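Title: Comparing notes on inverse folding

I've been comparing how different people in this forum approach sequence design from structure. To keep things fair, I'm posting one structure and asking everyone to reply with a full sequence. Here's the target:
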């Protein structure tokens, strides 16, 4: 602790000294923008105008704390002009600038516009993709292809974002921290997927892709943060919204969304309900070859599963401003899902090219998942100007999974005739997880040039899991000892962070550090094994920005982050697929540590070029372990070695004509995998990803949109992947005086969105094609009473992201 305290003191003195000693040779204007209830007005447009003729000189947007600073001004007399959607425009000044002066324009408070929109057609001015200095913003309302889809579907086709094996990846292909309205959602794996599928795109305003969220957020944000901003009601009175969609092609998808809000000067009540009924096919073709003792054995698997999901979700909550600048809130959030899965797995076994036998495994899973969480929150300004802010949250979540499965193995000889009696199994695998967490955050702006933030958080997780696996013997089901187990996992993380931000001349320096102490205990009954762990880590985060000239903003940062195993990654339960294929967790899995270095240039406040390097120690992922004698292979998680990544990224929004806009994101990368196994050589790979979105504004009512995604051939973890390409298209038409919208979208038009790869790691030789169907045509109609979308909120706790294995097919 003395080292930490000394570090904080050194940073404080250094930053303070830099502020005192920095000499300013240019003129500047800075200040703060407040909105309703004296809250910071983020993303307000601030323009500097010449007082003589009101001609525009320079402009910027306010940050999340409402602050802005415009440098490089010539001596003269200026006005400050501020605009923001749903607020009246406002002028401030005039201000007389002398050479080298830095004038504080003080606080500018916006007033909400009283103009009624009435029955007019609203034409969106925002592009789908907006590039900002600290983030890339995806305006979901402008994405026609998102119509009728879930948040999961929207993320799956977002530029730079990839959903792979239940993980949401961003920023160098690393695991991202997913947040709803700035509040992290720490579910992982299949439970994160299930959570995101419970939220519909109609409730989303925008998605923020943040490369460096800072030390306030969990050190687990190795791939940056994906912040999903839900639509909020900006009008007084009550509002109601409705949306309905239907999709067909590969099975079906139906969804209904209802939202309601009641807003007064001090009270905001909000509620939402969503219903989805989906059925989607999942197909896998797998060919595995084993060469041993001069013999060649082939195992060819054809797998198909029909994933049905009937989902119900809700939010009910309120915010109350009991005095000016002081707000308390509560939220109850939950979902109940019925997710039956029917699977058929056929394994053809050959020796030296001759068919020996076939095993058919039929499985039926009956699964119900429920989750309910409670949140209370406080947000308060410590002074009238809002320079000091204290906020806190306390959360509790209760998750239950009830899953029962029936399996039947049928055996056939080389001629396809029944070879032996079938083997029947039944298993029951309930899971109960509770999560408790609380956090307290403090920010203080001493001036527009210097600020401090600090906070603490504590979380506790308990995961209790059973599996009872039984085989039918002589007409009665009896336990199979090797496949029956009881696993208990407890984890507690205590964290604290401290950060400073200082501005001098055209430079902004941010120095943060986060300390996290983790204690965990994993206990398995069969085998009788307990693994306890306790470790403490410091996670520094340093960022510096330099305004080179009016067209170039250079930003560089370094951060150290961690990726802990999902709760179920540590679970040693053995999952049965067939007699030659199992899956299991790894209680000895270690966390991986990621060091990220990035340099980016924002050109003309529009285009962005980024260079990055990431080094991951003890990286882990899903691998297959094969026994050449028994021919059994097992899917598990393992620490593999060190992963090096080098990447250049281009964000290029281009306006071709007033009615044709293009947004292109291009990633070019080089990677190296260094394995700890002496028998496996290091692997090098190069590749590129291209994301292209085109919008055609055909009329005031009619809009067409195309989205293309291409991923080149590349090596990933232990497999060589073939190129991937798919295309989406959508059309939107505004009706009923702008209150209603009809959208028609076609996803994966050519049915090419699937992974095909080959694995030759260690003693493995596997070729696989894996496709979870996204080939659908979706029609959506939405209608709202009022002039804006109702407010919704999420209170899912940080730790929930790591629950995992809620809705997988095993």
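Reply #1:
Here's my take.
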């Amino acid at each position: 602790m003395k080292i930490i305290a000394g570090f904080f003191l050194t940073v404080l003195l250094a930053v303070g000294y830099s502020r005192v000693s920095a000499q300013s040779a240019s003129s500047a204007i800075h200040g703060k923008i407040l909105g309703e209830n004296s809250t910071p007005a983020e993303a307000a447009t601030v323009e500097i105008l010449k007082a003589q003729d009101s001609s525009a000189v320079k402009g910027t947007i306010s940050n999340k704390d409402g602050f802005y600073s415009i440098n490089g001004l010539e001596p003269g007399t200026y006005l400050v002009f501020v605009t923001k959607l749903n607020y009246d425009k406002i002028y401030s000044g005039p201000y007389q600038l002398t050479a080298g002066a830095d004038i504080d324009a003080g606080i500018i408070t916006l007033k909400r516009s009283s103009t009624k929109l009435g029955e007019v057609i609203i034409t969106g001015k925002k592009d789908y993709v907006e590039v900002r200095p600290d983030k890339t913003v995806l305006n979901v309302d402008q994405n026609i292809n998102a119509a009728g889809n879930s948040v999961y579907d929207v993320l799956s086709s977002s530029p730079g974002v990839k959903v792979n094996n239940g993980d949401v990846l961003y920023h160098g292909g690393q695991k991202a921290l997913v947040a709803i309205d700035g509040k992290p959602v720490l579910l992982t794996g299949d439970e994160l997927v299930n959570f995101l599928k419970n939220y519909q795109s109609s409730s989303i305003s925008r998605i923020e892709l943040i490369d460096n969220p800072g030390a306030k957020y969990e050190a687990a944000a190795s791939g940056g943060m994906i912040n999903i901003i839900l639509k909020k009601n900006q009008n007084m009175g009550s509002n109601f919204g409705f949306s309905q969609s239907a999709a067909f092609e590969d099975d079906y998808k139906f969804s209904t969304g209802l939202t309601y809000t009641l807003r007064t000067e001090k009270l905001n009540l909000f509620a939402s309900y969503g219903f989805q009924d989906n059925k989607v096919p999942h197909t896998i073709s797998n060919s595995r070859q084993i060469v041993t003792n001069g013999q060649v054995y082939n195992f060819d698997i054809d797998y198909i599963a029909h994933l049905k999901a009937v989902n119900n979700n809700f939010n009910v909550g309120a915010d109350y401003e009991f005095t000016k600048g002081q707000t308390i809130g509560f939220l109850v959030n939950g979902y109940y899902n019925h997710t039956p899965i029917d699977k058929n797995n056929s394994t053809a076994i050959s020796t030296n090219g001759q068919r020996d036998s076939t095993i058919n495994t039929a499985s039926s899973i009956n699964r119900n998942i429920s989750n309910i969480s409670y949140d209370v929150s406080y947000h308060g300004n410590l002074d009238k100007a809002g320079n000091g802010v204290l906020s806190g949250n306390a959360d509790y979540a209760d998750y239950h999974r009830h899953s029962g499965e029936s399996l039947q193995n049928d055996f056939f000889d080389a001629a396809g005739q029944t070879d032996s009696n079938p083997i029947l199994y039944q298993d029951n695998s309930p899971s109960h997880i509770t999560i408790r967490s609380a956090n307290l955050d403090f920010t203080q702006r001493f001036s527009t040039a210097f600020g401090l933030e600090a906070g603490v958080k504590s979380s506790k997780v308990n995961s209790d899991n059973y599996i009872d696996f039984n085989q039918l013997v002589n007409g009665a089901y009896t336990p199979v000892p090797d496949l029956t187990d009881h696993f208990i996992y407890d984890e507690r993380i205590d964290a604290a962070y401290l950060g400073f931000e200082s501005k001098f001349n055209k430079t902004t320096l941010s120095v943060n550090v986060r300390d996290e102490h983790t204690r965990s205990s994993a206990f398995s009954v069969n085998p009788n094994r307990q693994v306890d762990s306790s470790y403490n880590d410091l996670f520094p985060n340093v960022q510096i920005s330099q305004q080179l000239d009016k067209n170039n903003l250079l930003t560089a940062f370094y951060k150290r982050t961690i990726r802990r195993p999902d709760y179920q990654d540590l679970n040693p339960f053995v999952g049965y697929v067939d007699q030659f294929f199992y899956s299991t967790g790894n209680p000895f899995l270690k966390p991986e540590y990621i060091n990220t270095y990035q340099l980016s240039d924002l050109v003309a406040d529009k285009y962005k070029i980024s260079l990055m390097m990431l080094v991951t120690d003890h990286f882990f992922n899903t691998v297959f372990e094969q026994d050449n004698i028994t021919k059994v292979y097992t899917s598990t998680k393992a620490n593999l070695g060190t992963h090096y990544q080098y990447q250049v990224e281009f964000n290029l929004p281009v306006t071709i004509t007033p009615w044709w806009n293009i947004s292109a994101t291009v990633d070019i990368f080089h990677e190296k995998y260094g394995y700890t196994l002496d028998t496996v050589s290091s692997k090098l790979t190069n590749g590129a990803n291209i994301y292209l979105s085109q919008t055609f504004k055909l009329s005031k009512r009619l809009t067409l949109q195309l989205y293309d995604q291409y991923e080149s051939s590349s090596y990933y973890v232990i497999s060589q992947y073939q190129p991937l390409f798919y295309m989406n298209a959508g059309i939107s038409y505004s009706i009923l005086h702008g209150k209603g919208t009809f959208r028609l979208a076609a996803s994966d038009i050519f049915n090419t969105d699937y992974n095909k790869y080959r694995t030759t790691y260690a003693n493995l030789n596997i070729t696989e094609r894996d496709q979870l169907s996204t080939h659908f045509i979706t029609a959506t109609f939405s209608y709202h009473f009022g002039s804006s979308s109702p407010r919704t909120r999420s209170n899912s706790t940080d730790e929930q992201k790591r629950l995992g294995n809620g809705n997988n097919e095993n």
